Amino acid sequence: MKKLKIAGYQGDGSVHTRSVKFFINKVSNYFNISFDQDITEKGKKAASLIEMTMNNEIQISYLWSSYYEKYIPEIKLLDLPFYFKNKNEVKSLINNDLQAYVSIELIKKNNLKLLGFWDNGSRHISTNNNIIKNQKSCENLKIRTTPSPLHIDVFNKLGFISTPLDVRDFKIALKNDDIDAQENPLTNYWNFGVQHKQKYLTLSSHLFGFCLFVMNNTFFNGLSNHEKKLLTKASEDTTAYQYELAEEDDKKLIDLIKKENVQIYELTQHEKEELLDKVKHFHDEFFTEYPNMKF
Question: Phi, psi at residue 151, to the nearest 5°?
Fold first, then answer.
């Protein structure tokens, strides 16, 4: 049997880890599979998953789309703050337009085959200081962002002090109380243990995140037709399973988080619009640079 190395960056409770295990179960009779569940526990950056997969050091990985910005800058569309009204609007965009575009770009530029877009959750803001309701409540709070230049600029514009950290370094900063705030989906807020450090959670839904589930394209092309069909079907089934799992996770996590004495506040539409006004120029700049992404 051919060897198939898979790697990720999250623990047992993660919807992504559970989805990878679902995928493995689908194909384990046909491949000799190893799964490095969380490479950050071994000191590696989550972002390194991209090059590890491109170089065929591993064959399959998942990672939040924001980490792909330097490879496919157009994918910043998914990171425009307060741009999408809800997650279903983003899913429709992915299914109708974006998935085909990204799939072509990944093969052409990065030797990666797109197996699916995974739901990475509605992103919310937490702090160790106060609830976020407006720009004033953001001021001078040191917030962990991803290394994305767009994320850094957006949160600086909102009044935060952006502190870009890979997942590996974010976990360390959280443990050492080096940050005042962070933004993540509920699943990460819970599974990274943020609820123990930051007791003020604002449901802002400023972004609706998605991960890219990818495979090394050279490896895929070297498979038999039967193996290709098997992996493609398993990927489709896993993506459907992952979507269901992510929805279930979000619903149950609110209650679990409340039990940890976390104050939860949901932004009103008016408050969202006020924050949008501060960052709307990022939308305009993006579509000026990438007019073809106005689907």
Answer: -60, -45
